[in-house]
Specification:
The chain has ten helices and 18 strands. With 361 residues, the protein is of the alpha/beta class. The strands form three sheets. Strands 1, 12, 13, 14, 15, 16, 17 and 18 form an eight-stranded mixed β-sheet that branches. The protein has an eight-stranded parallel β-sheet with strand order 8-7-6-5-4-3-2-9. A two-stranded antiparallel ribbon has the order 10-11. It is elongated. It binds pyridoxal-5'-phosphate. The site of pyridoxal-5'-phosphate (PLP) has 15 residues, from β9 and α9.
Length: 361
């Protein structure tokens, strides 16, 4: 009799602790602190507590809803909203987040009014554009923006940051990180202040940060994927000494039959508008699992050896199981990439099972 619902994510908190602690340690040697990024964790207070016990100094999330979830569960650590705030959410942001990453004066000015009304002070980290072309103030505009931010009541300018490798895949390297350090030096000199946070980027910065180069003024990284999946996002290579299986997905077989590999009839579009790839490999062992686009990004799944994903629709994952016949009801375990992880974590149809033997902690 099965009592655990399907599909499910199995989340090994000890392995996440190990990954976070290892990265915190390695980066501490380079003078860099870690903000634990929770955006793939749907604000799980258990995961936040694991990251904090592993030594991250702040929790970051891209959604205020997740920050509110953690606050409601009593997570008291400093929290930073890592996506530029929506004007429509400034009240919630100053209430629940201590800091936010920002690029727009209009937004910071509304955060200032909201913070004033709430009798609070809100910390701001200004994001600078270094070439990846997602969020960031153009470097030439930074000084002027800082001047105006410093005039706003109830706003504390806490630091400067950058984000690379998200929109255009631009790699963090000595050149762009030195540019960030130089901008920090120049802002401090012009305004006679000290910025306590210089947040150089995300998991894609690890090659640069651990490669032995001088970290310059960078004293913080915001890490999500590397902690949860144990791999770096530039080439999706496993990071030495980290677990890549801290989170796995289990799905259940609902049909298993020998079928021709070649469809018959007139071929038009598939459920998702793609043109189907028609190949003829003779008869194959085909198994269907009860998971689909509603739950996961199927292209980000890696099954056990010998099980190949050949298609997916909203609720079905179709696999070629080679020489192996799976029985109906069998549980199949998958590794996930970041895209698949984000989707499964946020799907209400996927149960999250936290495994927490606490052997290491
Ligand atoms: C998602 C995100 C991060 C974390 O990125 P990972 O690659 O998961 O480490 C850091 N900063 C910002 C602004 C982000 O949006």
């Amino acid at each position: 009799m099965r009592t655990i619902s399907m599909p499910r994510l199995e989340i090994d908190l000890d392995k996440i602790y190990h990954n976070a602690h290892t990265l915190v340690d390695r980066l501490a040697c380079r003078g860099i602190s870690v903000t634990g990024v929770m955006k793939a964790s749907l604000g799980s207070p258990e995961i936040a507590r694991v990251l904090l016990s592993a030594g991250v100094n702040m929790i970051g999330d891209s959604r205020i809803e997740n920050i509110e979830t953690m606050r409601r569960a009593g997570v008291a650590a400093p929290m930073i909203l890592i996506r530029s705030p929506m004007l429509s959410q400034v009240d919630r942001i100053v209430t629940h987040a201590d800091l936010s990453l920002n690029t727009e004066l209009d937004v910071i000015s509304k955060l200032s009014s909201a913070a004033k009304a709430a009798g609070r002070k809100h910390g701001v980290v200004l994001m600078v554009e270094l070439g990846d072309l997602r969020e960031g103030i153009m470097p030439a505009d930074l000084e002027d923006t800082v001047r105006q931010v410093l005039r706003l009541p109830n706003i504390a300018l806490r630091g400067i940051g950058a984000n690379l490798a998200c929109h255009s895949g631009v790699s963090p390297d000595t050149r762009n990180m030195s540019e960030l350090s130089a901008l920090v030096d120049s802002i401090e000199a012009v305004f006679g202040l000290t910025l306590d946070i210089v947040s150089g980027g995300n998991s894609a910065n690890l090659d640069w940060a651990l490669g032995g180069a001088d970290a310059g003024r960078i004293n913080n990284l915001r890490l999500g994927e590397s902690v949860l999946l144990g791999c770096e996002p530039l080439h999706r290579q496993p990071i030495d000494g980290l677990y890549t299986d801290a989170i796995t997905l289990i799905a259940e077989v609902i049909e298993s039959k020998v079928k021709p590999s070649r469809p018959w009839g007139e071929i038009a579009q598939t459920a998702f508008g793609e043109k189907p790839l028609v190949t003829d490999r003779g008869n194959i062992s085909q198994a269907i699992l009860a998971i689909g686009y509603q739950d996961v990004d199927p292209s980000g799944l890696q099954g056990p050896p010998g099980i190949e994903i050949i298609g997916a629709s909203s609720d079905h994952l179709i696999t070629d199981t080679g020489h192996c016949h799976l029985s109906v009801g069998a549980e199949i375990q998958f590794q996930l990439n970041y895209s698949a992880l984000v989707r499964t974590m946020t799907s209400p149809f996927v149960t999250k099972v936290l495994k927490a033997p606490q052997s290491e902690r």
